Amino acid sequence: MDATTATSILALLRPVEHLRGISIRIATPESIADIVPGGEWREGHADIDAVTVLATRAKAILSSGDYLPLGAAAYRGARRTAFLTVQHGLMTPHAPPLAPNTHLLAWSQADADFWRSGRTDVAATVVGSQLLWEATAKRAAEPPAPTDRPVYLGQLHGAELDRAELAASTERFCRQTHAIYRPHPSEHDRRSRAQHRKWAAQGIEIDSGATPLADLNTPIVSAFSTGILEAAAKGLPAWAYHANPPQWLAEFWQRYGMHQWGDSPTPAPPRPEIEPAEAIANAVMKVIKAS
């Protein structure tokens, strides 16, 4: 677990609650004593090389990939061990490639096909998204009307879109619709803060972030945020918007069923029969039993 972000916790830590009768080691860059699932845990320190050694003795490794230090260290030790990569967010063409001989646990068949890109060395199992599963459980009792004032989820921090074009598109949307701009938590760099001040001076309302995103009960709009699907899963009106979307973004919207601003709201994503965290745990146990 290279990061203790909310998406990583849902994708990698939540499945631990469904694993029984096996010994589990969790490698993280910081202590997770306050969020680790119940059980008899012993906390200790292990450096990167120790993670590689532990991986050589493992029956299965669950990760978000091999592109960050802990995942890379585990993959180095996984010569004869099943290396499972769990999808924890929406997939763009900028996503790092899967490690050779990975077993991908994907949100959907479309995502599995997209990330595999025709490779024959990567197996895939569709497990669904724990993030969207939990969003569905928080469906709004009294959802807002599609005509209510929207909140635009910012993504100025992202490298996927040209920043100047995204800023111009965002400004245009907020001016035309009087939307409230909600900065992404990563928009704390000097350039982003300057952009926020400029917009505020122009009369665009900037959300203070006092209300957690999960508790918002407003229409939601963004360029390609996971929040669009989270909102749709909660029964909120949600749309995608970019004034001049590149081809990959238009394909992205289509793959996730995101409706563009001006169309009907984005439908709620399909809900799998089995909770994704349990499905991930089942996949882990399957490869352990087969080893």
Question: What features would you describe in this structure?
Answer:
By secondary structure, this protein is an alpha/beta fold. The chain folds into 2 domains: 6-128 and 273-290, no CATH class; 151-255. The protein is built from 10 helices and 8 strands. The longest helix has 15 residues, at 163-177. The protein starts with 5 loop residues before the first helix and ends with a helix. The mean pLDDT is 95.
How is this structure best summarized?
The protein is α/β, with parallel strands linked by helices and 291 residues long.
Descriptive key words:
291 residues, 4-stranded parallel sheet, 10% strand, alpha/beta, 10 helices
